[in-house]
Amino acid sequence: MSTPEQMYTSRRSDDEDHVEDERYSASDEFTNRLQLAKRHEATERERRRMKLLNEAFQLLQAILPSYSRPTRMPKYDCLRLAIRYIKDLREVLREAERD
């Protein structure tokens, strides 16, 4: 049998555990919401970054000569064509300097 003092101590301990569980749950919920908000912000930053990158590739594609297909050029092909174009321009400048 439990003495009244032991019962009080036992009940008090259970109450304290319950309060700690509630605090832990509230803390977990806050942490989860914070993580979700941070993830949302990171996703939005990545979307903006990709939008700017795609716009830059569209601009590059529009500037490059000898490309007349109406479909979008893959980014890799766009970069390869830009590299080739820059090399050709350098060669034109070198030849002009020799003359």
Helix and strand arrangement:
Layout: H1 4-63, H2 75-98
Walk me through the structure:
The chain has 99 residues and is mainly alpha-helical. It contains 2 helices and no strands. It starts with a helix and ends with a helix.
Quaternary structure state of the chains depicted = single chain
- The low-confidence runs, each spanning 5 or more residues with pLDDT under 50, are none
> What overall form do the CA principal axes indicate?
rod-shaped
Total beta strand runs? 0
Task: Estimate the strand proportion.
Answer: under 5%
Mean pLDDT: 82
* Helix count, DSSP H or I runs of 4 or more residues: 2
Sheet/helix structural class: mainly alpha
Distance between the termini: 111 Å
Order of helices and strands: HH
Helix % is: over 70%
What radius of gyration results from the CA coordinates?
Answer: 33 Å
The profile of the biggest β sheet is:
none
In short:
This protein has 99 residues and is mainly α.
Provide key terms for this protein:
99 residues; mainly alpha
